[in-house]
Amino acid sequence: MEPIPDTSRPPQVVVNGIPLIKYFSEALGELEGFRVQPGDLLISTYPKSGTTWLCEILDMIYQSGDLEKCQRAPVYTRVPFLEFRAPGVPSGLETLKDTPSPRLLKTHLPLALLPKAFLDQKVKVIYVARNAKDVVVSYYHFYQMAKVHPDPGTWETFLETFKAGQVCYGSWYRHVQEWWELRKQQPVLYLFYEDLKEDPKREIRKIMEFVERPLSEEILDRIVRETSFKNMKENPMANFSSLPSYIMDHEVSPFMRKGIAGDWKNHFTVAQNELFDADYAEKMAGSELHFRTEL
Ligand code: PPS
């Protein structure tokens, strides 16, 4: 068993009003002057919205469906996570030093904390959004297993913290809306987790078109198959099992947990659901965004 550094569950740190994992907040200084390269593609999401799924799909597209090449390293090395930092493992910026161009980059940062170069140089972005109810359930389990987060407390408390935008990365409501608005200024392909679940082939076609990498029907079918929840859950290069357990403890809750739309129904009480809907209606009033909470 690897030694467990005494670095577990540091309290979150607030930067420009946005709560963050303490270690990630320490990466922001160095990230500020981040230089983008021609051909960079940014994968942006609020946490627990299908990031890893999209990373795997994109790496498969970039490797023209070559399975062996996609096994070359864990997904967090193939697609560096910009603001990632944790004790005893390479940071996102360290990983980037060995990442060849054209690069796939991952972030959860809200626009206020995103390195300026991504906006100034209008880097192509693929954003995936997931309905808030499934996000908060997934996030609750993730807080329990990923010990870079503070203790989530009870489900009831966590739900309130989420609604108040006080979880790491702040308000879901703001995140999904501001990245939606960004479409007006730069190339952003805005996808929905529920659409990917409903018809992965249709959504992967959209992605291929956006990144201008057309592939054969046979390769497309292979990408759909290899990036299914079942296959990714069993794939050690996609399921985060290679991170030390003092960072992610899959025995508490696996990273690849359920991978469905509608699991929130197993967690929300009727009263919690009613209150959530009322608060949601206020926070999303006037938004063009419509989410499906079940399929
Ligand atoms: S993270 O830590 O924020 O980057 O997490 P993220 O990858 O965004 O989201 C994790 C949730 O996505 C589910 N997942 C998938 N669902 C369907 N199909 C595939 N292939 C897939 N891969 C990951 C994962 O199970 C997490 O959701 P929950 O609801 O917890 O199962």
Present the secondary structure layout.
Layout: E1 13-15, E2 18-20, H1 22-25, H2 28-32, E3 41-45, H3 51-62, H4 67-70, H5 75-78, H6 92-96, E4 104-107, H7 117-120, E5 124-129, H8 132-145, H9 155-163, H10 172-182, E6 188-192, H11 193-198, H12 200-210, H13 217-226, H14 229-234, H15 270-283
Parallel strand pairs: 3-4, 3-5, 5-6
Antiparallel strand pairs: 1-2
Helix pairs in contact: 12-13
This protein binds 3'-phosphate-adenosine-5'-phosphate sulfate.
Characterization of this structure:
There is one protein chain. The chain has one domain: Rossmann fold. Helices cover 40% and strands 9% of the residues. The protein is built from 15 helices and six strands. The longest helix has 14 residues. It is globular and about 50 Å long. The site of 3'-phosphate-adenosine-5'-phosphate sulfate has 21 residues, from α3, α8 and α14. 3'-phosphate-adenosine-5'-phosphate sulfate binds next to α3, α8 and α14.
Concise overview:
By secondary structure, the protein is α/β, with parallel strands linked by helices.
| Overall tally of domains | 1
- Our measurement of the CA-to-CA distance between the termini, rounded to an integer number of angstroms, reads 41 Å
* Helix percentage: 40-55%
Nearest-integer average pLDDT: 97
CATH superfamily: P-loop containing nucleotide triphosphate hydrolases
Provide the gyration radius in Å. Answer: 18 Å
Strand content: 5-15%
Strand order of the largest sheet: 4-3-5-6
The quaternary organization reads as: single chain
Major β-sheet, in short?
4 strands, parallel
Poorly predicted regions? none
Question: Do you know the CATH architecture?
Answer: 3-Layer(aba) Sandwich
SSE series: EEHHEHHHHEHEHHHEHHHHH
Class of secondary structure makeup: alpha/beta
Bound molecules: 3'-phosphate-adenosine-5'-phosphate sulfate
Identify the overall geometry: globular
Quick one: CATH class?
Alpha Beta
Q: How many strands?
A: 6
How many separate helices?
Answer: 15
CATH fold name: Rossmann fold
